[in-house]
Write a structure and sequence with these properties.
The chain has 62 residues and is an all-beta fold. The chain contains no helices and five strands.
């Protein structure tokens, strides 16, 4: 079983804050998540820095 960690992100479209639960066993590449508020697709990439999970969220049209 892989550990999971919640991360706070802001939607790059509507600016709403939301919490995603990230599977730390699958941090490779980019993932597409739909915003819970405006339903637009966000591209999410993850990295670890000093034992802290760093999410990078961008629009799919960037």
């Amino acid at each position: 079983m892989n550990p999971e960690e919640p991360v706070n992100i802001l939607c790059p479209y509507c600016g709403e804050s939301q919490v995603l639960v990230i599977d730390l066993g699958d941090m490779s590449g980019e993932h597409i998540e739909d915003c819970e508020v405006c339903c637009r697709p966000m591209i999410l990439s993850l990295s670890m820095q000093d034992n802290t999970l760093i999410p990078l969220v961008k629009r799919d049209d960037e």
